[in-house]
Amino acid sequence: MIKLVRIDYRLLHGQVVFSWSKQLNIGRIIVIDDETANDEFKKMSLGLSKPSGVKLNIFTVDEAILKISKIEALPENVMIILGNTSSALSFCKSYPKISEINYGVIPKKEESKQFSQAIYLNNQELNDSLELKKLGIQLVMQQVPTSKRELLNNQI
How large is the average pLDDT for residues 35-63? Predict the structure, then answer.
């Protein structure tokens, strides 16, 4: 069962992944990121940074879309981590069952606007987020399970 869909450019970030994994009893993490899926060194690095006992898959967006029926049938609780809003939008357009996306960290960059302590969206990311909102998806900004949940939908 998919328990969490998160956008975080860091993908598997120690403290964050461990806290969400523990809170939601995650048994498998699926990273959906085209660049990482095509880079053996990055895949190896992510394999080393996952929580012990948690399975890890790394797919391109297209691979994840093709495997979604298998992902849905997995017996363990699943966390999906996407590297950016563009990947999230592509995935959600092909898989309309996502009702909420956790915006973890999207870094500050040139011409980006701050929406929370760790969420900065440039024009493309804002447009992607508006499209996600139009798909009926709640966009929640929350770093870790114990931090305050803020609804991005109300700010865009």
Answer: 95
What pTM was computed for the model? Answer: 0.95
Number of residues in the chain: 156
Task: From 110, 105, 103, 75, select the one nearest 89 (Cα to Cα).
Answer: 103
CA-to-CA distance for 118 and 104, rounded, in angstroms? 7
Structure tokens at 56: 């890890």
Decide if 129 contacts 86 (C-beta within 8 A): no
For residues 14-28, give the mean pLDDT.
89
93-99 long-range contacts, CB within 8 A, separation 24+: 93/135, 94/65, 94/68, 95/65, 95/68, 96/135, 98/2, 98/5, 98/137, 99/136, 99/137, 99/138
Which residues make Cβ contacts (< 8 Å) with residue 28, sequence separation at least 6?
54, 55, 56, 57, 74, 76, 77, 78, 79
Taking each helix axis from N to C end, the angle separating 123-134 and 85-94, rounded to the nearest 10 degrees, works out to: 20
